[in-house]
UniProtKB/TrEMBL annotation:
Residues 571-586 have a biased composition (Gly residues). Residues 1-23 form the signal peptide. PROSITE patterns: TPR. Keywords: Signal, TPR repeat. Pfam families: TPR_16, TPR_19. This is Tetratricopeptide repeat protein. Residues 559-596 are annotated as: Disordered. PANTHER family: CELL DIVISION CYCLE 16,23,27, CELL DIVISION CYCLE PROTEIN 27 HOMOLOG. It comes from the Bacteria. InterPro entries: TPR-like_helical_dom_sf, TPR_rpt. TPR repeats lie at residues 417-450, 519-552. It comes from Marilutibacter aestuarii.
């Protein structure tokens, strides 16, 4: 958004500088902006260059031009812009110049300190980074520790380096005495795969906040990550009785049980204390995933008897539970009983899905057509009806009908990004990359700053074509908008790999996986590690991806390409070690689109 505003400002400034000549006057004499004595005029050239370069995804050129414009205008906002864009490039010298100018123009406070610490980490100046982060954590502003957290989570290109610096800060008690801060840094240590550091954080949190149950949650997470599931369960059992009085704690404990695979214990935890529709819905989902139809039936009966005339939200929930229990006719009755209002449209969509489950496809598609043509239906509900119709046709393996549903949806809503995005993914699944690209580009015509479309198109070009430089420019535009988005960092790492830069790629993919535990990111990282000859670590990360989602498309394609078994060995082992053997890049490494 800021780039668009800057472009508008440039055009307005140009218009203001253009004199209006009367018919009787000679045309004005124009001089080149760089020859002007006015700094504002001299700024226009580099500022326009910066804007065009940024829109083209050429970050190096954009950073240079913003830095030049900031120097001419003596504008701290432009200096900040130059710094932030330069931090997305590997040119540390330019980043240092931009930071110096930003500081010279009067910048101070959290943002400047965070940028300086990020640069220090990138340059490997850990002592300097430790000092800057200590200053950041000591700042009186409430956002100080959050900025420090962001630097350690995304500013360093080496998770091991982030762990070392965080260990220093913990040992010297630099983290402020706020439980939220300690819990956040404890979670970061878990993602950085540093069990000794997690242990040190737990010890200090216990000392700072004795008796605080959320500290036990961090301890349970640590034990789970270390593979000590029984010990983690023991810790959770110790704080479980306190959950009835604290709904947030109850949710957190249930989440930990969920991560341990104890769906029944997660549901039992949520069942303690006051209930609402959200807690009931979560419990139902857990029981459905656990395939515990006995307990789910008991919950269903409890909800049915709770009120003779349930509220609309409760009727919708009862319909969903009936779906879980495969009581489809009852589900249809509950959905039909949801009265007017926004929930009515969700209930009608769910009802169409149930009809399809009952193999009453004609009725399902007729129900969706009725929503699509209902003038009283809000536009989002009508668009969802087209999307659901396409999804059901996909389930029926009727490709022609799926694409026809998209076409009708776009005839009604020509500029609906959600429908265009879904159709683009459908084209990509069919290996029709030109049509997928066309839909992504149409989204970008409608919404030029759509981060999801920029990232998806960039990833698709990187993954399914050889247009790697173009892919890099699109992903760079997404990175500029959301530099800490794990999916975008993953796309960036993947395009670096496809460009033949695996050493740089592995750094970015490690960062992405540290930010978000995701099967596709893990599969990408594992493949690059394999190509770099780090076979033992690659196997470990492949297993991490498999544990998250064994059917992940990127995971299975990578395993097939590398000649590795799609399913884990019967004994759970990873095979013989061959660390150091070289692998070779293939023609196509992964599938799917990592959307922001």
């Amino acid at each position: 958004m800021r780039s668009r505003l800057l472009t508008t400002a440039v055009l307005l400034a140009l218009a203001a500088l253009m004199p209006v000549a009367r018919a009787s006057e000679a045309p004005p004499v124009l001089i080149a902006p760089d020859a002007s004595d006015d700094p504002a005029v001299r700024t226009l050239g580099p500022l326009m260059t910066a804007e065009f370069a940024l829109q083209a995804g050429r970050l190096d050129e954009a950073a240079d031009a913003y830095l030049e414009a900031a120097g001419e205008a003596r504008d701290p906002l432009l200096a900040e812009r130059a710094t932030r864009i330069s931090l997305l490039t590997p040119d540390d010298a330019r980043t240092a110049r931009a930071l110096g100018l930003w500081r010279e123009l009067g910048a101070e406070g959290l943002d400047l300190l965070a940028a300086e610490a990020s640069l220090s980490l990138r340059q490997g100046q850990e002592r300097k980074a430790r000092r800057q982060l200590s200053d950041l954590l000591a700042m009186p502003e409430p956002g100080g520790w959050r900025q420090a957290f962001g630097v350690l989570a995304t500013g360093s290109h080496d998770p091991a380096q982030s762990a070392r610096v965080l260990e220093y800060l913990v040992k010297r008690d630099r983290i402020p005495a706020q439980l939220e801060a300690w819990m956040a840094f404890g979670g970061l240590a878990l993602r950085l795969d540093s069990p000794a550091l997690v242990e040190a954080i737990v010890e200090r949190v216990i000392a700072h906040f004795p008796g605080e149950p959320r500290v036990a949650l961090l301890r349970a997470s640590q034990l789970r990550e270390a593979g000590e599931a029984d010990a983690a369960r023991e810790v959770l059992a110790g704080i479980d009785p306190k959950a009835a009085r604290d709904p947030v704690l109850r949710q957190s404990i249930a989440h930990e049980y969920d991560r341990l695979g104890d769906l029944d214990l997660a549901e039992q935890t949520l069942a303690r204390g006051p209930q609402d529709d959200q807690s009931y819905a979560t419990r139902a989902s857990l029981l459905a995933r656990d395939e515990d139809k006995v307990a789910l039936t008991a919950l269903y009966d409890e909800l049915r008897q709770d009120a003779a005339a349930p509220e609309p939200a409760r009727r919708l929930l009862l319909g969903q539970i009936a779906e879980f229990l495969e009581r489809h006719e009852e589900a249809l009755d509950w959905y039909a009983g949801v009265p007017g209002g926004l929930l009515r449209w969700q209930a009608r969509l769910r009802g169409a899905n149930v009809l399809h489950e009952l193999d009453r496809g004609d009725e399902a598609y007729a129900a969706l057509a009725a929503i699509q043509t209902d003038a009283a239906a809000p536009d989002p509900a009508r668009q969802d009806a087209y999307l659901l119709e396409a999804a059901l046709h996909q389930e029926d393996k009727d490709d022609a009908a799926e694409m026809e549903a998209f076409a009708r949806g776009l005839a009604t809503f020509p500029d609906a990004p959600e429908i265009l995005y879904a159709r683009a993914l459908a084209w990509e699944r069919r290996d029709d990359i030109p049509r997928a690209e066309a839909d992504f580009r149409k989204i970008l015509v409608i919404e030029p700053d759509s981060v999801a479309a920029l990232n998806a198109l960039g990833y698709t070009l990187a993954d399914r074509t050889t247009r790697y430089q173009e892919a890099l420019e699109l992903i760079n535009r997404a990175r500029t908008a959301q530099p800490e988005n794990a999916a975008i960092i993953d796309s960036y790492g993947w395009v670096l790999y496809r460009l033949g830069r695996p050493q740089e790629a592995v750094v970015e993919l490690r960062r992405a996986l540290a930010l978000q535990e995701d099967a596709e990111i893990a599969a990408h990282l594992a493949e690059v590690l394999w190509v770099l000859g780090k076979r033992d670590e690659a196997r470990k990360v492949f297993e991490q991806s498999r544990a998250i989602d064994p059917e992940n498309r990127s995971l299975r394609r990578a395993l097939e390409k590398l000649g590795l078994p799609l399913d884990p060995p019967a004994d759970g082992g990873g095979g013989a070690s061959d660390e150091g053997n070289e692998g070779g890049p293939g023609n196509r490494a992964s599938g799917g689109v990592t959307a922001a």
